[in-house]
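Listing S7. Sequence submitted for prediction.
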Amino acid sequence: MAIRMLQFLAIVLSALALVPAGAHLAALPNKIALPQAEYFIVQGIYRGWAILGWLWPSALVANALLAVCTRSQPWPFRLAALAALCFALMLAIFAVWTLPANQMTENWTIAPGNWEALRRQWEYSHAANTAIVFAALCLATGSALSWRPMSA
């Protein structure tokens, strides 16, 4: 029963992590060519979204725990471990590309000379993370579906 609860938690956290990532990706085509003033206004809608960033490490932990708990079955283990690695990769992308853009623009309240490059960096890092979190959700679900309870 504990594994089933952990599978549920890993899937739900992975799915919840897809929501803000998907919102960023859906907005990208409409935002990427906006003039600076308009882009900065639109970026204001993300104030307070930092709390959603906790979904990524939470999903990483849930999927890593799922991998540990299913290590006796190769496919469920591998799929859960890959899902956890996806979330680790997302955090790395955030740390290398997204966070620096946020910091250099003071969360899109100041426009440095290279703001357009930072915009591309910010937008495309979110787009990449959307694809990665979708893969993680599929992997977590695959892990749960391929797991078989051990008979007593």
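Caption to Listing S7: primary sequence and predicted structure tokens for the chain studied. Helices lie at 2-31, 36-43, 55-69, 74-104, 115-146. Residues 24 and 36 are 18 Å apart (CA to CA).
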